[in-house]
Every structure is written in C-alpha cells, then in structure tokens.
Amino acid sequence: MDSEQTLLNSRYVHVFFMDGVGLGSVDAAVNPFVTAETPNLDQLLDSEDWYLRGNGRLSSQRATLVPTDANMDMPGRPQSATGQATILTGRNVPQLVGEHYGPKPNPAVAEVIREGNLFQEVAAAGGKAALLTPYPQGYFDAINSGKRLYSAVPLAVTSAGWPLFGADELRAGKAVSPGFTGQAWHDMLGYTDIPILSLPDAGRQLAAIAGHYDFSFFEHWPSDRSGHRGSLAAAVSHLETIDTAVGGLLEAWDDRTGLLIITSDHGNIEAKDHRQHTRNPVPTVLVGSDHDDLARNINNLADIARVVRGVLALS
C-alpha cells in the first residue's frame, strides 16, 4: 500500500465479482463445477464440493462461504442489472422496481443506483474507490454517442465521480482485463502493446492494486457469457481459468488488512442444461481476519453492501 492511500478504517475491501455463477446440483452432465479442477478454491474452503447447493455455510481457517439468496423475495429469474444494483446499494432493488431486470439498468434501476451506492459513500467519506476492470476506447465512444448504456457497475462508479479505467491503466498495471490475461485486447481489440499476464499473475496484480483503494471492484463478466453460450466442456475450462486467477489473488492477499469478497449476482453457469439464469443461491466467499463473524451477517445480496459499510465504517 502506498503513502497516498488513506484508509477509512485501517482496512480495505475488494469485491471479486463473477457474473452468473451459482451453486448447483451434483449432476456432472449439467453442472461444470462437478468435473472442473478448482484446487485453489477447494483448498481455501477445505472442501472439494463447495460448489453444491444444499451444503449450507462452509467455514475454513481462512475463509467462509455463504450460499446467498439472489431472488430477493421476488418471482422469476434474477437478472444482472437488479442483482448488481442490490450488491452495490444494499437495497432490495428487484422489490423496489417491481421485477428482476437486466442486463442493463432501465430508468428505474438507474435511479436507485444514483440515489446511493458504495462508490458514492466511499467518496463522501473521503476515501478512494475504483472499478479495476478497464474498457477499450470503443466502449467510451459508444457511451458518449448514446449507442450504448452503462451496466450497473460502471453506472455506480461514474455516479460517484470516479473515472472508468481504459487501455492506459491496463498498460500501466493499474487495472486487470476482465478476461485476466489481456490476450483478448490483442486478439479482438487490436491493442498489441497491452502486457500479457499469466492467470496467477493477473490475480496477484489484482491484490496489489486493491491495496491502493479503500474499496475496489473487479467485474469478471465472461462467466455469464459462458453460461449462456458454449458447451459444457467450455464451461469447465472457464471455471478452471477463474480458479487459477483466484489462486494468484489468494496467494498475494493480505488477510490482516484486507477483506476479499468473492460473489455473483445470479446463477447461470452451474446449469448448462439450458441457457437461462437460475434461481440457485450464489456463492459469497469472505477472506479476511474476521471472515466467520462477518459472514454471519449475509443471507441475501443486499447484505454484502452492509458488510462493506461496516468494515469501512461507512455507517
């Protein structure tokens, strides 16, 4: 942590967000977690079947996993906009707007996000916050032209006055690609000067960057795409990619000064017998010195913001 950092409460929080990851069944023909090799999360949670719904709360020496309700007492399948808004505001957004909605916020969801979220609260308290996932120039051009809308997370960031990161921050090692390595920036976006990272190095870089902020958020959206598209085998490979990156993050994470929260907004990838979201609980994993006590406060997505507020003394 550098000398420019001023912690609000002597600790910092990082949210490692995986879009569309739920706790599923034991059926290997449906759930890619069953055959995926996830040694880092297995070791963290001291369990080889932590990914199953119905296991209940799991606690190890270093971490606690809480099956977290994403349905928020509403019918239908949870969606990204309302789920992410709930995580970032601590409010039951599907209930407030009358439905699960997504993928991008509609005016009602956007209004709830702008009314107050964690990025705004950190700014008001004099702290530092950032979204560590960068965007290419084409994204900014589309936003500025009105051809594209912000999803819930960048809307929360910009509503607080924080800048979104781009290629410059990625080159400088101040951000990490949503696909971890940066290879897609070469292959699909034409940014041939972007450094290529190994998966463990990407995780270690996330841990290092997070130490410069009171609150930071990393959005890994390809997991939701892998749920909607592609084969079961591809989903297995994708989960193994996430685990390898998380391994680097855990290796570099300082449990004494940082709280790491790994979570999702709704289920999807854990049920490859269809291409829709699920009503399964999502895994929320807390890593830090008081993970067990903090995890007792989490039942649904809205509780995650309350834990962050408590750790950062925002309320």
Tell me the major beta sheet.
Answer: 7 strands, mixed
Helical residue percent band: 25-40%
Give the C-alpha Rg: 18 Å
- CATH topology label: Alkaline Phosphatase, subunit A
Tell me the strand percentage band.
Answer: 5-15%
Category by helix and strand content: alpha/beta
Question: What's the number of structural domains?
Answer: 1
In total, the number of strands is 7
Name the strands of the widest sheet in spatial order. 2-3-7-6-1-5-4
- Overall pLDDT metric: 96
Order of helices and strands: EHEEHHHHEHHHHHEHHEEHH
Q: In CATH's first tier, which class applies?
A: Alpha Beta
- Please mark out the parts with pLDDT under 50 across 5 or more consecutive residues, or reply none: none
State the end-to-end distance.
Answer: 24 Å
Shape: globular
Tell me the CATH architecture.
3-Layer(aba) Sandwich
Helical segment count:
14
Concise account of the structure shown:
This protein is an alpha/beta fold. Helix content is 38%, strand content 11%. It has one domain (12-77, 118-312): Alkaline Phosphatase, subunit A, CATH 3.40.720.
